[in-house]
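Narrative of activities, Objective 1.

The group set out to show that a structural description can be obtained from nothing but a protein's sequence at a throughput compatible with the screening campaign. Below is one input-output pair from the validation batch, recorded exactly as produced.
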Amino acid sequence: MKRVAGRQTRYVNKMEKRSGSLWEGRYKSSVVSANEYLLACCRYVELNPLRAGMVEDPSQYHWSSCPVKTGIKEQAWLNFDPFYMSLGKTTDERAEEYRRWLRKTVPEEEWKLIREATQRGQLISGKKFTQEISVKLGRRIELRGPGRPKKARK
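Output recorded for this entry:
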C-alpha cells in the first residue's frame, strides 16, 4: 500500500503541478473475522461519510459500495461477500435488509473495537477467533493495555 500511495501521490502531484501528500496519516489495516465482524466493518466504513457530515444518507456517497448494496445504483463489476448475499434471496430483499441494518443503532462496543483494532493493527474479532489465530501463529496476539501490569499492593 505504501508503494501504491507513493505512486498515486507522485502522479497526482505531477498532473496538478502540486506537492505534498494526498492522504492524511499512514495506511492502516486489520485482519477481520468475517463470520463475526465483516458486515460490521462494512457498516463502519459506509457510515464514515455520514459521520463526517459529507452526506445526509450513506447511500448518497458515490465512492462506496453503499449505493449498490442499497439498490440505488448498479455496478456489474462489484462482487458481494457471502454475508451480504445472505441478507435476502433477491437483490431487492438484500437491498432493503441492508438499508434497514444500516439504520440500526450501532453498539458502542462495536465502534470501539473496530476503531482501536484498526489504529493498533490488531484483529477485529472475538476471543475465540483471536485464540485460533494465536495458536496458528504460535504467539500471543490479544489486545492488551499499555505498559507493565501494576504491582499488587501489600
